[in-house]
User: Fold UDP-glucuronate decarboxylase from Cucurbita maxima.
Amino acid sequence: MNSELFRRNQSNPTLQTHNSVIGPPRTPAGCSIKFRSPIRYMLREQRLLFVFIGVAIATLLFNVVRLTFPLELRDDQRYQAALNAFVRLDSSIPMRRVLYETHREGSLGRVNMAGKVPPGLKKRILRIVVTGGAGFVGSHLVDRLMERGDNVIVVDNFFTGRKDNLVHHFGNPRFELIRHDVVEPILLEVDQIFHLACPASPVHYKFNPVKTIKTNVVGTLNMLGLAKRVGARFLLTSTSEVYGDPLQHPQAETYWGNVNPIGVRSCYDEGKRTAETLTMDYHRGLGIEVRIARIFNTYGPRMCIDDGRVVSNFVAQALRKEPLTVYGDGKQTRSFQYVSDLVEGLMKLMEGEHVGPFNLGNPGEFTMLELAQVVQETIDPNARIEFRPNTEDDPHKRKPDISKAKELLGWEPSVSLRKGLPLMVSDFRQRIFGDLKDDASSSSSAAAATLSTLSTTSSV
Ligand SMILES: NC(=O)c1ccc[n+]([C@@H]2O[C@H](COP(=O)([O-])OP(=O)(O)OC[C@H]3O[C@@H](n4cnc5c(N)ncnc54)[C@H](O)[C@@H]3O)[C@@H](O)[C@H]2O)c1
Assistant:
């Protein structure tokens, strides 16, 4: 009687208490069929038939939608569609933008379409990002790219770069300047990436060594990631410092270097070596188009005054009538390349078909004392020379072997030290003494322009 007061599937509190004492809980009758025999459950009451009917209806609907709205094209159709779209559009729209937007990210072998302009179409305008474009080398590179008619985006955190170096492009619709630290990721739609962002002089890169190595490693990773994402060609500006204190002279690209991994310069040397490794791994592993330049000492207008680099030091000291400070015995050698030669080499490397690394430098070798003499001849014959103890890990010899760049890029420097130095001196004079201050940036552009003409006529 008591049990009649409960429904079939409800439990009797008396029984519950009993169960909890004498054995395992009993499963309700309906559930026991479900769990013990799912196959029998499916076969009952024509359930299986309803499942088949459901699947058939879903398949039918899927095919109808797919045929009505064809979302997916085969790869060759995809390429053809992109080409057709390109031909219909104004030919000034960069081809890459049309193509890479049709690509699946990371699809190897199809992400890099640089240089593939259909015959008969006029040269496309490239979108190029220059990291570190407000710095010394970067700003000269930007000048040349703008002159060529490209769209240029400069990304710079202004650690050593200056807006003054680019002010003559402000207002040009083809030019953009973004304050950004490359240690943080950035997304831009571009065809080429010139990755220069990194302090280059010992004074600056030793200022915060951890930041320097982060810029080289994390910054390079971020820019390679961008290259992968948008299918851009990537150029790394590495350095002759990867050879360390070289045991081979002159240094060819095949030489692996002699670098102190724990020295005060390692944040820069080893940072750049790692950046080269990352660049090659992205190339080999992910099919990214990359280029590597190993830059040797470069000088010219817009170098930071007092940045500790030997040419800028001597020029600033001679102009201020201070003694020229020579570290060590002054017999250590360097080669000095004028900035317009370097920019020419970087552009040839980016446009060429070879990955590198390529040494870009002037093989004309000078001891520090010889350089001091050239500065005396150019600025002040009475300038005194003062000797100081040498700095740690300062390499004894540095001279590029540029045979590879000559042969594969058809590049060699053409501006001699005696021709280039006076152009740098006039820029430094204006910045140090402030005469013709307002014209300073335009005069350094003019100097660079003069040098592009010079580079075709003079020899090392
Ligand atoms: N000038 C040379 O003699 C020489 C030699 C070898 C290699 N390089 C390489 O060439 C490149 C340019 O050198 P440079 O002489 O023009 O130096 P620079 O110091 O004048 O220019 C470097 C630029 O990078 C910017 N920058 C630095 N860290 C950054 C960051 N984290 N995010 C964004 N921007 C950052 C600076 O503000 C500056 O504008 C560097 O990568 C350098 O290692 C130069």
In short: Residues 131-132, 134-138, 156-161, 181-183, 196-200, 204, 215, 219, 237, 239, 295, 297-298, 304 surround nicotinamide-adenine-dinucleotide (CB under 6 Å).
